[in-house]
Amino acid sequence: MHNSVSVIMTCHNEAEFIEQAIRSVVGQSAFDFVREIIVVNDGSRDASSSVLERLCDEIPKLKVIVTDGIGVSAARNLAIEQSQGGYIAFLDGDDFWTSDKLERQVKILADSSKVGLVYSDFYDFTQDDLSDAQVISVRSYSADEDKVLEKYFVHDGPIIPSSAMIPRVVFDDVGLLDTELRVGEDTDLCLRIAERWRFQHVPGAFSYKRRHGRNLTHRFDALLPVAIELTRRFVARNPSLVTLAKKRMARRYASVGNNCIAFGERKRALSFIWKAFKNDPLYLKTYVYLGFAILPSWLSVSLQKYARRFYHEALGRRVA
Questions:
Q1: Which domain CATH number covers 130?
Q2: Model pTM score
């Protein structure tokens, strides 16, 4: 079924979240397009297994694969290999979708053979009642846009897995997720797709991204080694990226510096901001983050929150 969707989910000790995630799929306005929901229960030691067993009895399209801690990338690859849908939609076990997510995105892929990835904005939240949910308006790439690889290489998106949908033929073309990467495997996949396919942003936030202490990426400095490796890897493969490598790393260093400020680590923040300045002195956000780093902590934290909200609201208006 070319237009059918295989929803790929991973679960590792997410008993408290996984039912909400699955029910957000079942509640899709375009649920008829969903061929299957494949959940890889990867080494969970909590009540995830009992929750999934109960839901399997209720939801015919739900299939569970049990693995013993093989990791997110290997789990997703296993599910992709066993799936049958024409499109692959990822959903993390602690995230969930709005009811129109698939309906809005399937249409784009059905209408264009050159689009290898569709994605959208998302909600960022920590509270279960969504009282602190904030729309994160991401950078918009279009199927009619040239040099997507160069632009994504420098600017990123961010494109989170739970917001994306990818045709199966794209995986046949560029390969599956890199299991050697513990973090950043989604960025690596997006870069490989950008080498050969177009991206299409679908305006609107259709995914809720939960932030909590178990998120692998809540500390941005943990992502730096893989950012450096991916920069090296894709520059070696694409000569057009050579002159853009420093611009890319300036943005990564500046982002890490800003993240360190949020954790109260001003000295470390300044060291990363200095690296950003050395890589690209014209990157204006470096100077904004420098201001946050030297202001009193009570003021810089408040300004960070305001600036983040203002940036995403402005970006949202621009792509609307």
A1: 3.90.550.10
A2: 0.91
